[in-house]
Amino acid sequence: MLRRLIALLVLIVSLAAGGAWAVWRGLNEPYRGFTGGEVFVELPQGARSAEIAGRLADAGVVPDALTFRIAVRLAKADRHLQAGEYRFTDAATPDQIVARLSRGDTFRRALTFPEGLTIREMAAIFENSGMGRAGDFIQAANAVSLVSDLDPDAGNLEGYLFPSTYSLPRRAGADGTIRAMVKEFRKALGNEPLPEGVSVRDLVTLASIVEKETSQSSERPVVAGVYANRLRIHMALQCDPTVIYALMLNGKWNGNIRKDDLTIDSPYNTYRYPGLPPGPIASPGKASLDAARHPANVPYLYFVSRNDGTHVFASTLAEHNRNVHAFQSIKRLVK
């Protein structure tokens, strides 16, 4: 009887030691129980550590739920695990996983929209990034309620999707991306009062024109000043980018603007219709928004490209014609 009791005690101690060793090994050895290059795990808001442990174990990220819960308890991280989608690729120990979840090191995709793009051009970037379909982006950009307090007349969000690099979760989709872009636009617009008689729509429309006309930071206020001068004296803006936008809306833009295109019957054709076009023609960046809000006090009414990314400005038509002749001649010689 004594021998059986001793044997039983030895077995119990051995099992306990073996269990302790298994737990120690599970806590300290990197583990990767999933196949393929990566696995994603979504942790919902408000999930308790037991649910989180189960999801991670089911995905093969940790050896088992109990080991992960022990790691959480040892790290005193029960209240610090953050919700979101996580991407796992390499073997890791449970305490390394706990540290990631405590930092909120969720998976996010970088999505960059350069300045001066239209909604449709941005939609192509959105789709090419793998975030969703271009059509969904275009549809989401019709959510004018997002800017109704700024522009009650907006027909879509053209001009109000701020160009920047965004770090977004995969589940953001088109709606989440659009909301993030409008939020950044509001930050860029700021709360500074607008010039007297200028609406947000007017400001963004002018800023979009400036954005399309020049990429030179130093020129933006000057270009804005030229157009402000023209608007003040009721002179046609005669802006090629607005004609290009009209051609795009009509499915006629092929990458080249011809003389005949300047006669297209569209309210965006600023050669035919005076004043600003009906709305923005692209998404302006912060510098162009600032330039439209604070146009340079210049005497110029004209400018022409130097063919190197910069422009030469003129106050009179005679001076402008000389500049056009000089730089267009250079352009023809270069070609």
Which terms would index this structure?
335 residues; two-stranded antiparallel ribbon; two-stranded antiparallel sheet; Dna Ligase, domain 1; 4 domains
Rg, Cα atoms, Å: 30 Å
- Approximately what portion of the residues adopt beta-strand conformation? 5-15%
Judging from the principal axes of the Cα atoms, what is the shape? elongated
Going across the biggest sheet, name each strand in turn. Answer: 1-2
Number of helices: 12
Percent helix among the residues?
40-55%
Note poorly predicted spans: 7-17
Q: Could you tell me the mean pLDDT?
A: 89
Structural class by secondary-structure content: mainly alpha
How many beta-strand runs? 6
- N to C succession of SSEs: HEHHEHEHHEHHHHHEEH
The tally of structural domains comes to 4
Could you tell me how far the N terminus lies from the C terminus, measured between alpha carbons in angstroms?
Answer: 106 Å
Sheet having the most strands: 2 strands, antiparallel
